[in-house]
Request: fold
Amino acid sequence: MVGSRHREDTLVAVTTKTFSVTTGPVRLVRSSLRLFVPLGILGSVLLAAPALAERPEAWETPESVGFLDFFLLVLVFPLVATAVITLLTILPALVKGEKLSPNAAPIEDQWLGGPKGGKAELEGSDAAKNAGGASGQW
Amino acid sequence: MPVAPVASGELTSRERAELDRVIRSAEQISRVEFSVFRGISQGDPRVFAGSLHAALAAPDRSILIMVDPVARVVEVVTGAEVRRTLSDRTVEMAVLAMQSEFAQGNDVGGITRGINLMAEHARAPRTMHVRP
Reply:
């Protein structure tokens, strides 16, 4: 019984030692990597200096842009270009006489050879007797 | 999938002038009054066309053509006197001819064709009798 107890004690000790050897350093390295890699990236980004280069001497010194030029370039020219493009877009529809407003009636009533009062004279006008004709759709 | 042509707004002054000329010519040929309404019909298109026809100066001697390009409807109403020479069957044929032009987006061409066809048939037959 004493011998068997001794073997059990030895076996337990060996097993514990083996486990600590295989997991301890690896876990330490992984923990270190998790900490230092993001810190390194963040630090390099924060500490990075902007790239600077001297302007070549052969280049001319640019003239300072006045307020009027800046105003023309940034505001007036784009607005004029927008107006021209819009006009070119809606011009064909205007020439054809189409309605551009979404709330407007699609077409205006036109009556050739009708009464002078137009549709206002329809009040109380019943269909003529013995009228004929035909209907169609397309 | 073919896309149907869309109604192209109001008639231009040039198109109106052309239709006026066609109407005058048709009236001279047939001795019948022609009237063309192009617009949005209200309610039942047939009833609306009938009320337009009734509002004309001489409905019995008149032909009214109503074209609604939005609803894609064409109605022709003929007066009692007109029907003596222009049968409803002939009007149907004219409407068919107009429909085919309208389907191609040619509103003025369709109206012109319909007026010409009906004017040709509405013309009173020539009599061979010679008055003393």
Q: What stands out?
A: The first helix of chain B runs from residue 13 to 30.
